[in-house]
Amino acid sequence: MERSSLRILIADDHPLVGDLLEVYIRRALPEAEVVSVASLPAARTALSEAADCTLALLDLNMPGMGGAEQVAELRRDFPETRFAIISGTGDHRAVRACLGAGAIGFLPKTLTGQAMVDAIRLMAGGGSYLPIEMLTQPAEPEPTAGGPALTPREREVLDLILEGTPNKLIAYRLEISEPTVKLHLRGLFRKFSAANRTQLVAEAMAAGFVPSRTTYPKG
After folding, report:
1. Neighbouring C-beta atoms of residue 90, cutoff 10 Å
2. From residue 65, how far is each of 168, 176, 204 by CA, in Å?
C-alpha cells in the first residue's frame, strides 16, 4: 500500500483539542496521515522522522512554544513543511508575529469543525488562512514616540518583512535592487537592536508596528 502524500502534524498539549482535530481531519481527508503530539520538542522529533510532512499545526501556548522565534527556527530546519498556528486565545499581536516569521495561517480553536477542516484543506493545498475577524478588525494604532523613527522607505520594507516577504520579492515589489533592500534591512536591525529578521519582527511588533495595509505589486 502506497504511503499518503498528505501528512499532517497536530502539536497541541490539550488532548481534547488534538483528538477532535484528528477526528475532523480523518473524516474530511481520509487519505491523510495524521500524527498528534503535545509539545514542541515532540513536534521536532515527529518532523525529523517524517521530513516530508505537508502541514504542521502548532498550538501557540504548548510547552516549548515561544512564538515567532520557534516558527522561524522550524521553517529553517524543515523547509518542506508548512506551519500554521492554532490557539484558544485572542492574542492577535503574537499571531501576527508568527505570520511575520513565516506561518501561513491562524486557526482559532473557536472555529466550527467544518470551518477548521476547510482551512486545513486550504493550507495543505498551498493556500493561507486567517479568520475573518483578523482581516476586518480596525488597524492598530501606529507606535508612539517610543518607537524608532523610520524613513518612508524603511517603513515600506518593514511592512513587507512583517508579512514574511523574502528580500528578492521585496526588491521586486518596491522596484529597488536586492542590495538596497539589504541596506535598509541593516538599518532596521540597528534601529530595533535586532540581530536577525526574527528578532526584528518581534521587536517591531512589541513596539506597536503592524503592516500598514498598503498594497504593493504582487510577484
Report:
1. 12
2. 29, 36, 20
In DSSP terms, 58 is beta-bridged to 11, 85
Q: What is the pLDDT of residues 101-133, one digit of tens each?
A: 889 999 998 888 888 999 999 999 989 898 877
Torsion angle in degrees (nearest 10) through CA of 212, 104, 208, 90: 120
Which residue from 59, 71, 70 is spatially nearest to 15, judged by alpha carbons? 59
Give the CA angle between residues 85, 90, 94 to the nearest 5°. Answer: 55
64-98 per-position pLDDT tens digit: 988 888 999 999 999 999 999 998 876 777 888 88
**Can you name the residues that pair with 85 across neighbouring β-strands?**
58, 106
Residue 198 Cα to chain centre, angstroms: 11
